[in-house]
Amino acid sequence: MRAPQSDLLHSELPSIAADILARLRQRAPRVHCITNSVAQNFTANVLLAMGATPSMTISREEIAAFVGGADALLVNLGTFDAERRVAVDIAVKTASESRLPWVLDPVFVDRAPPRAAFAKELIGKGPAVVRLNAREFFALAGGEAKNATVAVYALEHKLTVALSGETDFVADGSRQASLANGHPWMARVTAMGCAGSALNAACLAVEKDAWRASVAVLLILGVAGEVAAANSKGPGSFAAAIIDALFNLDGVTLIQRAKVK
Asked: What distance in Å separates the CA atoms of residue 118 and residue 217, rounded to the nearest whole number?
């Protein structure tokens, strides 16, 4: 008896992630990041460790040129000041005109209504992926972050939702996957999620299928987190170790350690 296509696809996801990892390193895409001010250094180091190239300017005079010459865009709302809000508007418009994939990371939209309102506007402008946690999802969707609810939201908004948690979940309305890799110390390092969103944008630059790209990122980060934890004594050494783990991660290790449901 033939296995269902969805089961076959899920069994193939670790190999797909390994292929995306290899293409990312081969193509070295440039990702323009509008991100949290406290996340910039760590985000840049994660991208560089993976072979991608970061750029970070938010100058209204420069950002259109930077985004127009990039391969993908990250919009992170962690620092929601007036300068970044202007930069986001210009960057998203430029990405749309240039047909660049972009990722929205609506950080802390559960803390402030103006931030949530702006994030909802941005969702209407066509991000390929929205990466967030359960609290942030509730603030945007008005419902609990259950798998079925997330899948419906993704379908209605024609995007991929990458939901982080104890078990990560990725859905685009027609496909979904749960991913169980990672380590608790990942939640103890500033900018881990922000850097993951930037890496998601990098994978979108080499993989047009946003669902596959998002699954790959979560597997890459999760496996690297496990490897890093084995060589660390706590969050401080872990923050450095995961950069090394990402740099040294190979497809064989990724396939062997991937936990996909």
From this structure: 26
